[in-house]
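Problem 12. The chain below contains 1190 residues. Write out its predicted structure in token notation.
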Amino acid sequence: MDNNLSNFIKYCLGYVKLTRERTVLAQQKYSVNLPTECFGLLGLLNGDADEKVGELIDLKTFYKYDPKDVPKNETDIYEKEKELANKIDDIYSKYRNDQYTKQIILSFGYFEIEIPIESNGDIISPEEQEEDTEEKPVKTKIDRYPLFSLPVKIEQEFNKKTGAKEYSIYFVDPEVQVNIGMLEPILGEDLYFQLLEEMGKYEIEGQFSLPITDLEIFREIWHKIKAQLRLKNANFDEKSFSLEEIKIALSPKANYFLAEDLAKLAQLTEEELAKTALTSWTQDGELNIESETPHEKDLYFPFLYDKYQLSTLSILGNKGAIIQGPPGTGKSETISNILCHLAATGNRVLFVSQKAQALKVVKDKLKKLDVKYLFGYLPNPNSAQIGEEDEADGIAPQLSALGSHIEKLGYKFNARRHLVEYSGKNISIPTIDQVVSEKEKNREALNEVIAIQRKIYQFHQELSQLKEYDIDISDFGCFAKSFSSDEWREIKNAKTEIETLGKIIRKYERSDEKKEFDNLPATLNLNGEHFAEAIGKVRDDVAKTGYDRHSNFLRKINNVSRNFRLGNVREKLPREIIDYIDKVLMSSMSRNEQTKTLDCLYNHCFYYENIQRLENAEEKLRQKLSTCGVSDDEFEILDSKIDNATIANLEEIKNRILRVQEVKSELQKLSKTESTNKIGSALKRAEQERVKRVGLYIQNIINQGIIEKWKTGITIKQIVRKLASAFGRSKKAFKTFDNLRKDVNNFNAILDLIPVWIMELDDASRIIPLEAGIFDYVILDEASQCNVAYTLPVMYRTNRVLFVGDSEQMRDSTIMFKSNRVFDELAHRYQIPEERQIKATGFAVQSVLDIAYKRGFMDRPLRYHYRSPSELIGFSNDYFYTPKGKELIPINSNYLTYKGTNRVMLVHEIKSDWSEEFSDNVNVAEAKAILDLFKELRGDERYRDKSIGILSFFNAQATYIRDLFEKEGFKEENDNYKVSIIEGIQGDEKDIVIYSFVIRTPEQKNKYVPLTGEGGDIRADINKGRVNVAFSRARFQVHCFVSLPIQEMPEKIWLKKYLEYVQENGEVALYSTDLKPFDSYFEEEFFNLMRANLKRGYKIQNQVESCGFKIDFVVSNTNTGKRIAVECDGPCHFKDEIDEAYGIHVESDEERQRVLEAAGWKFCRIKYADWLDEKFDRDTVVQAVVDLLK
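Solution.
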């Protein structure tokens, strides 16, 4: 039984029946009888929907007189009409406070029957009556139900003469609903379905569609019902039915057609239910599929997206899946992207929600693409959020223009309007590959250029550390190859030798000896000759054997003997030197004098030999220096570095010198790169082109489908013409489409033309035939507020379903009961497992989102929060998301601080004037203070275009504030503000949100059921969702008006928690002007440049934190509020600044910039290479920043 899908459907049907009774009771709580003398039912039913003609509730006496002018004889009538007017006004005001979940219903044709019941109050079914044959006293009860109802709206007009409010009723849906569902327990299934089939015939024939000119049709239906009731134990008579009893009531939004569909599903077999998304509730197949996300070339997302939104595509292959979309995470944008992607890949999609606003937001996004026939939008005229523009966007006018669209594509029709020829250009599908490749190229280029600046900075840092090794070398190739310790020593030795020889030579040149010997015969050239050694030998011999007396004879004998002895030596000397030596030896000089003279000759010749040695040494030095690639001066520098080095290894010094040159060479190569700002602009243009091509691709896919369908035959033409003709008679889309259900093929034909359909959940049952799998996908938004029972009909119509919502936001509180007893019994009867039970008490209410999650549907969370800065979403994050592991990552740094407070969240404490206060549910002082703030904001240029939401947890306070504003001449629709209770704001957002908390004394806390926090409240989960919704609507600013000091508020209530959060976190750190330490001298120089050149009206901050990153500088124009992020590319690596706790993980500089741009930042980047370039004019940076801030 656990896997019995039929039982689950019957369980859900039983749930709907039980809650329907609750809806009837809810209508009775806020309802008012309209006497026939005051209201003409036929006048309303016969009205012209196109002209919006309403029926006046004619309270003649009340409208006619001021209170003091009422004649005595009409006082009773006046008081009765006044009471009636007050009740009508109460319904009118409560509806305006909560238009999302409430509707106004006009009910008529009441019937009264007496039926048997159990002792516990339950109706005895016909089957139970047949089984129980024992006679015993039967307990009965009398019930009274409206047989017919019509969604309406109340409009109010001031009587200019009396000032009284006059009320009129307008129908908002041209279809009268027949409420026979409550008869099923009395009639039993067989008779009930016979009756349902009978009513379907009336519906198809259009007899319930306005205008209705005769009330007799309603009596006829009553007679048919009576015929069925007579067969059962129900007592009634002719007076049991009355068309004169008319009521208007405030009611939860009904699901009339959904209930009908559910009843039909309950009759189907398991085989008939198979192969639809319904099987996801009972079968585990196709619930655990996870595919790769497509490459951007195969991605058809025309709107901006992040990695979390992109990841949703990976779970679309499942029968059922979930997208968790907390507030401000781009849920509508994600849905819009998914719809486009599915349409582009040939899928048929139905997008539904119970909230008209959710549909409208997505419709408006898709409309911006200007892709014809992408979506068919059926606005519900019963919704207060739908205006004339939305109706104009509806599907009916699109279909009426289909023929002209085909002609624009180049096709011609003959006289009979048959498609006969094509005269236009071939429909080409633009390729997205090229622009995606260009985009990837630009991304890589941006990352590369920023990485290069980082390298340049690192190289310059390295150069500063190697500054002493920045030596010019003549030939670094030779230096690297040949310079070594051995070569260094040889060069050192050569230089030492040169130095020594130089000293010797210079010393001799300064002596008198040189002058004497310079007089030797000019013919004697001593250059390059080596005579010193021979002369030295002669000199040495003379010193030993020389004659030292006066005898010439003996002197000659001594000289001859020496000459003979040194004959070999003398042969080596030239004649001039021999002659000189002989002359000296033949002179009368003493031996010492002769030795000294020969020594001088020796020195003279040795001088010339030293010159030769010096030249040789210098040549050797030159060769060594050349081999090592250095000049003499360069070697001297190197030699000093080596001598003074703290490192022992000469090779290390050499490597450092070479590293300096290598770094310089790299810097030279890296110096020429493209502008990062130009690349960023090109990247944006490429993305714009990608979006354009995605739109063209989808348009051409649709156009091809339309043409192919149009060519198939006349059926599609007939259907379209019929619809276009019907549209010409009525501007109401529903009236046009209600007839589609007559023939399933009709709707299927229209489905083939348009891939995406958008409508409210109940309207899907009203319009779309109940046929299995006619859609490939159904996407249901606001699933946290939708009951699983109401999703079954659309799940039957599709192969796959995607639930989108946020389990931490509001649940559907309209179906809450004090006890689960009847639901537990229902679940037991059909053996429904715990995780699939709906529940109905406050702490356990289960939406379809909750049940799907427990069932095990794959889910993808959206985590980037775009709506507001971290301060504004922080309360919801801290209390509702982070504790459950769903922490939101704020991607928004758009701040609008209040006056000079530097705050985006403020608490305004108000003192009440007790003479003005008249109710615990209304706070006059807060209302007046809010009006004053509103006027102040509208008088400030920064706030004139900002939307403002004014929220209260009390209907009475919301009504009082609205009336107060309207008395001042303000109108919500004209002045861009909205007054609402919390239920009326989910799915909406405002730039500024103002709260009126009303509570004045601690004793009033019990009135604050939604704010009682954790004190055992039976509505705890429901109220947490309401609080989360309430405090997550603002984009820029929050103002809290309180009349009870925070310190006097009871502990643990949500109100106190929130106000304490506002006080502690309302100040914006982003606007701190404290100068923080610079990361580099580059940043310091930039700051000094900007400070010196920026005029008054500008502010510069450094190291500004945003989205878990640090922006180098933020320059702001204090007059306009504009600001720009300036990045000094080079000093820092983005990975070094990532705050891991923040939750953002990026893989590149481009991705970092993309995240920050999504947060609202515009960038100006400065390359470190430019900053170092002597030719670069730094003043152009100042001018560029100023221009961007204009």
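Discussion. The chain has a mean pLDDT of 84. Students who got a different answer should revisit the alignment rule from Section 12.3.
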